[in-house]
Amino acid sequence: MDAEHSKAIGSGTGLILGKFMPPHLGHQYLVDFGRHYVRELTVLVCSLPSEPISGELRYRWMCEMFPQATVRLVHVTDDLPQEPKDHPQFWQIWHDVVRRYLPSGPDFVFACEDYGYRLAEILGARYIPVDRGRDLVPVSATAIRNDPMAHWRYIPPVVRPYYVRRVCLFGPESTGKTTLAADLAKHYDTVWVGEHARPLLDHKAGVCDVADIPLIARGQIAAEEALARQANRILICDTDPLLTTVWSDVLFNGCPDWLHSAAEQRHYDLYLLLDVDVPWVQDGQRYLSHARRDFFVRCRDVLTQLNRPFVGIKGNWDERLAAATRAIDDLLSPRRAGSVQPNAAPS
């Protein structure tokens, strides 16, 4: 390699623009390619209010994937034409937008699509095609939006909480929720969220005070959001904040308003409501051996009142696991791919 060529490596400025709806590993490769090619890379994250994933969320995802110390990220929210047929001055408009953020223009334009040729031409730059045939990272944002489960391997960890299917085990104590959660996680090669109340109350011999309720709820939410990034398509939750509100009402005749609100706003794709047709086992943190059926009815009623999707689970341990996997398999089936609401929980 001659000295002149060596000096050119890592020099100049580059541009990438896109919707990143959502960002995926193809985008990861494109941006990483660009930032290793030039000295300074600018990435324009372009969004419109009408798009199905908010631009602000996409920009936050990109900021976490590519810290500003390595890439200059800009969120462009102008109401811009999306195709040349949309406006007679299409290319001039985009030229002006780019020059707003790069007044002297980039030296290179990186893209995996043919528009890169024309964009580079109007900017006086050189077009560098990157994986144009998507042979290296065979995925598109459209494919992920249409069926995220089928393309899970290409979804970055920061984006996964938005698409992960959340399944919550719900119901009275001593009905096998924890055992079933662990078995389901193993079956689906994923992770499961334990019951935060247990380690929180261990040092108190399992005694729950009213001041513990907010801590239990906050810990449950934090654990779930942390593990959602590690989940493989599905996140199994041993409990949820809604069940914490039921316990608070039973033990203390009330619950903080903020907790009711937070519990009702959280999204789960499926609840598995466990029946009490199994033996009671005392483990040091159980209270209601005498009122299991009443507690079950409370659980069923709150799910019904809030219109939560749930399936009843009963029978012996093998029958429970079989019923649970049937319900989850249906949730993950291709025919359901485009019908499940993305998660509103923060990622």
**What percentage of residues falls in helices of 4 or more residues?**
40-55%
CATH topology of the largest domain: Rossmann fold
Secondary-structure content class: alpha/beta
How many E-type strands? 10
Kindly report the oligomeric state of this protein: single chain
Name the helix and strand elements from N-terminus to C-terminus, one letter apiece: HEHEHEHEHEHHEHEHHEHHEHEH
**How far apart are the termini?**
45 Å
Question: Spans of 5+ residues with little confidence (pLDDT < 50)?
Answer: 1-7
Key words describing this protein structure:
about 350 residues; alpha/beta; Rossmann fold; 2 domains; five-stranded parallel beta sheet; 14 helices; disordered N terminus
Brief overview:
The protein has 14 helices and ten strands.
Account of the protein in words:
The protein has 347 residues and is of the alpha/beta class. It folds into two domains: 3-144, Rossmann fold, CATH 3.40.50; 161-336, P-loop containing nucleotide triphosphate hydrolases (Rossmann fold, 3-Layer(aba) Sandwich), CATH 3.40.50. The chain contains 14 helices and ten strands. The strands form two sheets. A five-stranded parallel beta sheet has the order 3-2-1-4-5, with helices on both faces.
Q: What is the topology?
A:
Blueprint: H1 3-8, E1 13-18, H2 25-37, E2 40-46, H3 55-65, E3 72-76, H4 90-101, E4 108-111, H5 115-123, E5 126-129, H6 141-146, H7 160-163, E6 165-170, H8 177-187, E7 192-193, H9 197-201, H10 212-228, E8 234-237, H11 241-252, H12 257-265, E9 270-274, H13 292-305, E10 310-313, H14 317-332
Parallel strand pairs: 1-2, 1-4, 2-3, 4-5, 6-8, 6-9, 7-8, 9-10
Helix pairs in contact: 4-5, 8-14, 10-11
